[in-house]
Amino acid sequence: MKSTARTYTLTSSQKMMIFVLSMSLYGLSNMFTELIPKLQLGPLELSVEYFAFIPLTLCILFHPFYAAVGAALGEVIFGELMLGQFGGLGELEKFLTFSLAMYIAGRMVSDPRNRMQVGAAAIVGVGIHQLCSTLVDIGKVWIGVEEFEAVPGLAESVVLIEGVSFLNTMIVSGTLFALLPTLYLVPRLYGKIEPLLGIRPREATTRYESVKVWTPKLMIGGVILALLAFGAESLSETDWNFGEWDSGLADRLGSGAIWLSIAIAAVIAVVIILIMRARKKRSGNDGSAETVPYA
Amino acid sequence: MQLVRNWFNKISIERIQLELMNTAYGSGHVFLSALDPRCMILWYLFFAIAPWFLSNMIVLAGLFLLMIATTVLSRVSPFIIFVLCLGLVGQVGWLFILSLFFGGDIASALPLLKLTLKLSIVSLASITVFSGMDPERISDGLLALGMPAAFSFSLSYGYRILPVLFEEFRSVLLSYRLRGRAPASPGFLYARLGAYYLKMLVVAFFPLMLATAKRSRTTVEALETRGFSFGMKNPKSRQLKLSHLKVTRRDIAFLSGTAAYAALLFWIGAAYPLAI
Hints:
heterodimer; A: 2 domains; 73% helix; B: flat
């Protein structure tokens, strides 16, 4: 630790401000990118995946953790929930990779006025995110589909689709919508946007206090949830990607379907019981809350 | 490129803004939004997970019909349905075309059809719950189910702030267009015009970032005045905030009706196995 380095502690409302700012801005941009028409040249598709410059700029200017998590949540709320494209558990993996990539990009920059650092961070941030999601996508199909070679053309088409989309995103979103706008915006916003939130501009000597949320419990929980999401998505790929397995199931579906329906019925029953219990607990809480005051 | 021009004509920002306003504010009178949000979220969880494990076409089709019914009941705006269809076609259509390209045949369309059915059941369920209900109620429901307060707040804030942000973005965009100069000719394949608009879209975020920073400060100050970050940690104030949530007979009827319908579907599905 240098003696000149001072730790800059943000108050909880400043953290919330960064979070809300990042969420609403990136969420808004996400709605546009969902709506911008895609230019298709044969199987090649040139599209604007996302406006990565918004979370990048905010992660560079502010505490990267809150800006990154806010942006990832903004994508879930505006881009997925509001437009009805929420994929359930699979979104979790997107959430984790995106916030991780943006956080790393923000941590790379120590001085927002250094253009080299800002540019490198922008490229690395988009690169990490795209690499993660490409690997996860290919891995899902590899793991989910045991008879990967059995379906003609599946292996090649998956790798081709993912490879092309990786290149496309790196070129279009990575330079046009991450590198150039970030280089344009960061020097212009530096020193202007921070006072609006009551935060001192970040300098080369500023050290943010480490985020307290990286407790072992959260880390383990995050890893388990990510594996779960990965597994769920692999499973979802399993069902449709090859015809042979399904038709094999059809022969013995007589017993399989019954088990399936029993399992589903059990799930419904459990859900209803949970609701009943929640209701009972709530009415029970009403009585006990009076006797045990909150300290 | 006539298609592109039509697209721009149909989707004007004003129209989208109007639709979003409708989503955020206009759902109080809908049947589904009177139900308990916790029940609706549990209901959603079932329909978001179950379709992935099913391979019986009858069951899937039945669930799909149910989803159409609830979507109609929740009076979702046509704009959102349009975006949904676009997404489905984009997701599944390309996979099909590419697998044809690599030597698959028309038989590979059937698994893809099933995938489309599953995807649309999941999407329609999420549309029913998340755009058919009052955002405040969803966020209270999530809070009651143990979500962090910052998340459930962000959800309802997002729904409320979006029309405002849209309005602001539109005025910024208009002022840029007033001061700037559109390219005289649209260029090859409208490339020049497209580049002009895309650049404006990016540059317009500069004033918007500053304005949103101010707004988020105001928001958080208002939240803190109401004791948000400390109040939500206190179980009693949490309870007070959530005391209006009640599971009524109507919720039980809705859930058990859906469960009965699903059970009927599974029974039919078991009787007539038609897995493709």
